[in-house]
Amino acid sequence: MSQLNMVEALRQALDQEMERDKRIVIMGEDVGAKGGVFLVTDGLYKKYGDQRVIDTPLAESLIVGLAIGASINGLIPIAEIQFADFIYPAFDQIVNEAAKIRYRSNNAFHCPIVIRAPFGGGVHGGLYHSQSVESFFGHVPGLKVVVPSNPYDAKGLLAASIRDPDPVIFLEHKKLYRLLREEVPEESYTVPIGKANIVRDGDDVSLIAWGLMVRYALEAADKAQANGISVEVIDVRTISPLDKATILDSVRKTGKVAIVYEDNLTGGFGAEIAAIISEHCFEYLDAPIKRIAGPDIPAMPFNHIQENFYMPNTDKVYAIIEELAKY
Amino acid sequence: MNIEGLRTVEETFEQAMPPDLLLHAFKLMVTARETDKLCWMLQRQGKASFVISCQGHEATQVGCALALQPGKDIVAPYYRDLGVALTLGFTPYEHFLSVLAKRDDPTSAARQMPSHFSSPNMRIITGSSPVATQVPHAVGAALAAKILNKTEVCMTFCGEGATSEGYFMEALNFAGLYKLGVVFVIENNGYAISVPYNKQSALPNWEVKARSFGAEGIRIDGCDIEKIYAAATAAVERARQAQGPTVIEALVERFTSHSSDDDQRKYRSQAELECIQKRDPIDITRRKIIERKILSEKEIDQLIDDIHKTLMDDLEKAEAAPDPEPEYALKWVVEEPVE
Predict the structure, then answer these.
(1) Mean pLDDT for each 10-residue chunk of chain B (339 residues)?
(2) Residues of chain A under the 70 pLDDT cut
C-alpha cells in the first residue's frame, strides 16, 4: 500500500495490465518518450518499447480507427486522446464503428478497446481544454463510459475497462490528476463497471455526482452536516452502464435529490438521471429534482473569474442542499 | 465526360493467367453479375428494399481477392464488393438472405443494409455505410499483424470518392510510415454517386499520389482480369514481404446507378452509358476464353445458364427463409452472459 495520486494510480494500472497481457498496446499523441502530456504513460515507453507504446501521427480519427482494426486482429489497444476536447474527429469511429461492431455483426466481431481522455475544467484550459464529453458518449448504446473520482477507483476501473470485451470511454478529470493522494494497494485489482459507490451515507438529501464533482459534493455534505443536514453522496463511477438501483434506493430514502455535473446544463447526463428518478421515484419525492451544472454557454472561458463563475463548486452545491432541506 | 481522357492505363502488368484460373475467375465474375441482377429483380418486385451493385467492377473485385489467401488475409471491403466476398467463400444464397433481410443473413442478422459483407471465418471485417471508415481498420489490423509477428496481408477496398475522406489519407500515411502490409484498392468508376472524379481532386491519379505517402502506386485497367490480378498479386507479395503498402487504382465502370434509389441518366449522357458497355469486364474475359480456346461460345453460354439456374434455386430457398423476431433487435449491444 502506498500513497498515490490519480496519475500514478492510472500508470500503475496500465503497467500491471501490460505486464499481465502482452496483447495490450498504448497508442496516442506524445504517449511515448514524453509519457503523455499529463505523464500518465511516463516510463512505459522505456519499459515496453515502441511496439507497445506507439506515438501516432496527430489524427484522432486515425488513432481510434487503428485501435479498432488492431483489436479485431488480436490486440487490446488503449487509445489516448490528448484532451477530451480533441475527441470529435474520432467521434464517427467511436459512435458509428466501435459502438456498433458487436451489434452490426450479430456478435461475430467485437471491439475490446479503451479510449482514455483527460476532461474537465477548473485548470485554466479555456474553451478547448476544459470540456466535459460524457453525455455525448453516455447516449450511445454499445459504449461504456467510466469516470473515476479518486486514485483507488481510477486504478481499479481502468483495469476493469482494459479487461472489458467492449469499447470503453475512460474519462479522467484533469483537476483530479494531482488533487489528492490516497492509499492504493500495490497489487492489481478491479472495480466493477456499472456499480455506483455510496461515498457518504445520509438521510435528508441525496447528491449524485461523478468525477471532480464528487469532491465538491463531499465538501458540501461536510458543511451541511455541521448545520444539521444529513447528506448522502453517490459517486456513479460509470455513466454507462448506470447503476440506477443505487441512485433510486437513495432517493427513496431521502426524498430530495440534486445531480451535480460540470457539463453545461441542457442535455447533460444529469438530465437523464433526473428523468430516471422522476419516472421511478415520483411518489417518494418531497422536492423538485435539482441540477447543479455549468451554464448553457458554448464552453468554459479562459479568464479565471469567468471560469470560477462557470464551475460548480462546494458553495453552489451547498446552496442547493439548503434549498432542498427547506422542503 | 471524356472517359478516355481520364484513363491512362498502365501496361506493366501484362501477364496471362493459367487457363483454369482464368475460367475460375470468369465463373466468379458471372456469379457476381447474375446474383446482382437478381437482386435488382427482387427490388423491382418489391421484395427487397435496397440494392447496391457490383456490375462493372467484377474483374477488379475477383482479381484482387484471388491474390489473397482466404481465411488468412484480412479484408475490409465496401458496399460494392460482392465479387470480393464471393471469391473469398461467401455464397449467393447468403447474399440473397442479406438482400431480403432474413434472420439467417450471416453478415449482420439483417441489421445492416445489404452488401455490408462481414465474416470472421473469411476474415472479412464488418463495416459501416459511411465511406472510407474501414480503411483505418485495415491499417490497424496490419499494425496488429506486425506487432504479433503474423504474415497476413490486409486488403481494403473503396471507391475513388472515398479517397477524398480524411480517413483514407490518414490511414495511408500511417501505413506508409510503418511500411505496413496493406493493399489499398480503389475501384475508380469515375463517379461518387453523381460527382465525377475531376470534381474530387486536382490530381485525380493515385499512382502519383500514393508515392507521396510512402506507398507504391499502380494505376491499371480494372476491367481486365489478367492485369488487375497481376497487379494485385504483386502488391500482395510486396505486403507479405514487409516491403510496405501499395495503392492500386483500378479503372472500372459503373453499369448501374449508384443504388436502387438513384437514376444515373440524370447526370450521365446516353452516349457515355453506351460507350462504357465496351469495357464490360465479363465480355472482355469471355473473349479471352474463346480466343485461347479454353471454352467455345456454346460452352460459355451453357456455363452461364447453369450458374443462373443454381442462383434461381438459391433465391427460391432464400425467399422461403424465416424473418427475424422483432425482439432480437435487442440482442448483442454488448457482451451478454452465456445462456
Answers:
(1) 42 83 98 98 97 98 98 98 98 98 98 98 98 98 97 97 98 98 98 95 94 96 96 97 97 97 96 96 98 98 98 98 97 90
(2) none
The residue annotated as part of the active site, out of A110, A124, A129, A139, is: A129
CA B312, CA B314: separation in Å to the nearest integer?
Answer: 5
Q: Do A102 and B335 touch (CB under 8 A)?
A: yes
Structural domain for A222, as ranges: 197-325
* Cβ pairs A/B, distance under 8 A: 140
Residues of A in Cβ contact (< 8 Å) with B143: 54, 66, 69-70, 75
Same structural domain, A217 and A144: no
CB A261 within 8 A of CB A209: yes
To the nearest whole angstrom, how far is the Cα of A88 from the nearest Cα of chain B?
A: 14
What amino acid occupies position A147?
V
**Are residues A20 and A44 part of one domain?**
yes
The interface predicted TM-score (ipTM) is 0.96
Contacts of B333 in chain A (CB under 8 A): 102-103, 141-142
How far apart, in whole angstroms, are the C-alpha atoms of residue B81 and residue B104? Answer: 20
pTM of the model: 0.96
- State how beta strands A197-200 and A231-235 pair: antiparallel
CATH number of B3-318: 3.40.50.970
Number of domains in chain A: 2
> Given phi > 0 = left and psi -120 to 50 = alpha, else beta, which region is B109?
left
Tracing cell 503523455 back to the chain, one arrives at A36
A124 is catalytic: no
Q: Show residues of chain B in contact with A89, CB under 8 Å.
A: 166
